[in-house]
Amino acid sequence: MADKKGYYSIEEIRENLRRPSIITPLLKGLGYTLKQFFSRPVTIQYPEEKRDISPRWRGIHRFKKDENGNYKCVGCGLCAAVCPAKAITIRTLETDDAKRIPDRFMVDSLRCIYCGFCVEVCPKDAIEYSNVYDFTGYEKEKFYLEKETLEEPEKLSMTYKK
Amino acid sequence: MDFWIDVIINVIFAILSVLLLLLVVAYSTLLERKLLGDFQLRIGPNRAGPFGIWQPIADGLKAFFKEDVIPEKADKIVFVLAPMVSFITAVGIIAIIPFADSITIFGRHVKLIVSDIDISILYVFALAALGSYGCLLGGYSSYNKYSIFGAMRTSALLISYEIPFVLLIMSIVLVNGTLSFSGIVEAQSHLWNIVREPVAFFLAIVCALAEINRTPFDMPETESELACGFNVEYSSMKFSMFFMAEYAHLFTISAILTTLFLGGWKGPLLPPIVWFLLKTFAFMFFFIWERATYPRFRIDQIMHFGWKVLLPLSLANLLVTAIVMAIIG
Ligand code: SF4
Ligand code: SF4
Fold first, then answer.
1. CA of A158 to the centre of ligand 2 (A)
2. Neighbour tally for A74: CB within 10 Å
3. Total domains, chain B
């Protein structure tokens, strides 16, 4: 250590000389960056290339249908009730044979915080998350997703050609 | 008549070399961004044209159409003048760099050097010292605390590193016995100066880094502390002029180091101009490479290093060179 005035004693200078010089670590650093230079970039060129995401990714909701092609939803309204962001609008219709079906089911995807409560609360397992995350639009109206759109959220996914 | 032909050839060559410099400047920004991308496992600009080759043009156009803001309290004349000083002094250095051997056009020998003066080295240092006024005036005139700090640091840095740089180059002058660049290139026909003066070579690279304000000595532009340093108030073309001056410096200092240490355009087989560009770009590659590697020094560490390490070492180098030359010469 240098003293207050910044001078080194002879012993300290000898000690410093014995230590590995400052040059080697500098060269080591250069070598390391050169190694990086010759390795492949890790960039994913986003709009053309998309990264693999987890199957549990919380994307746009999917409004599921059963094997007969009817909505699984029974319009109980639990999802709208539990939604902390008040993003779900639901209107229930009662049919003549005393079945309840959703007349309107809309997710305001600008309000939704993707908390997953609606998926969890649904007694009929009628909502699940898709993997769609790259959904864009110019008008606000585009983000109010009605049940017809939500049947197949994959259609919302962006396609981009260079 | 002969005289006028000479003048015309010279003017054409001067314009050509400035154009070459501007081209190199434009594309060294792209080169730097591409190489930095490679060093950082990225790709770098690749949207404007294949491999991003239109990127410099796009950047230039963008800068051209930006609003040109002059701060209310700025010293207007100096504020406008400063980027020009920076840019012109940076471009001026290209005049004394020998690109290649003399060629024969229309039966007359034309030297591929804009102005083959005997005092090239003095000219270089004069212009480099003037160039630092660009930073200093720009920082001083913009009436901003960050810019004045940046400007002060720049001038402190340049003064501290110019002295060892001059001393190192003086040892080259001692060895080669001339101040002119073409003379120095001639003197290296058999043995490059890097072999004769290895210590000077490595120290000169360090000084050159400080001279062109690059990492680890990028004091004037310490983004993290000074927001951007001396050019914080500049926008539009004035900013790009500072920017272009910086990259012009990058090229010219590489060319100067090539001339001084690596034998200039001399080399076997390939044509001289190719050798010259190869060596120059090797230096530029190194400067970008080390930028990708090293962090920045603190200002007091820089001063410490400059005055307590570089200056004594370069003095000692000059002394040893002088003694050796006195004995064998
Ligand atoms: S994920 Fe959460 S915020 Fe979004 S709709 Fe479902 S409950 Fe509402
Ligand atoms: S909780 Fe499920 S069943 Fe109930 S309204 Fe929502 S989607 Fe339909």
1. 28
2. 16
3. 1
Q: Name the residue at shortest CA distance from atom 3 of ligand 1.
A: A112
Contact check, Cβ <8 Å, B41/A29: no
Q: How far is B67 from chain A (nearest CA, A)?
A: 28
A122 lines ligand 1 (CB under 6 A): no
- How far does the centroid of ligand 1 lie from the alpha carbon of residue A131, in Å? 15
- Inform me whether the C-beta atom of residue B36 falls under 8 Å from chain A C-beta atoms: no
Q: Residue A95: which residues within 8 A CB-CB, separation 6 or more? A: A101
**Distance from Cα B154 to the centre of ligand 1, integer Å:** 55
H runs (alpha helix) in chain A? 10-18, 23-37, 78-82, 117-121, 147-151
CB-based contact, B42 to chain A, within 8 Å: yes
ipTM (interface predicted TM): 0.71
CA nearest neighbour of A135 among A116, A152, A115, A117 = A152
- Categorize the per-residue pLDDT at A17 as very low, low, confident or very high, splitting at 50, 70 and 90: low
**C-alpha closest to that of B252 among B12, B5, B35, B24:** B24
The residue whose CA is least distant from atom 8 of ligand 2 is: A73
pTM of the predicted model as reported, rounded to 2 decimal places:
0.79
Which residues, including other chains, have CB under 8 Å from residue B120's CB and lie 6 or more apart? B96, B179, B180, B181, B182, B184
Average pLDDT of span B298-311: 83
Contact A43/B294, CB-based, under 8 Å?
no
| Nearest-neighbour CA in chain B from A65: distance (Å) | 42
- Say if residue B32's pLDDT is above 60: yes
**At residue B222, does pLDDT exceed 60?**
yes
Q: What is the mean pLDDT of residues B11-24?
A: 84
Does the pLDDT at position A21 exceed 80?
A: no
Beta bridge partners of A105: A90
Domain that holds residue B225: 2-328
Q: What is the mean pLDDT of residues A72-84?
A: 90
- Return the biggest CA–CA distance within chain A: 102
Q: Which of A33, A39, A45 sits opposite B292 (nearest CB)?
A: A33
Report the distance separating Cα B65 and Cα B10, nearest Å. 34
Residue B148's pLDDT band, with cuts at 50, 70 and 90, is confident
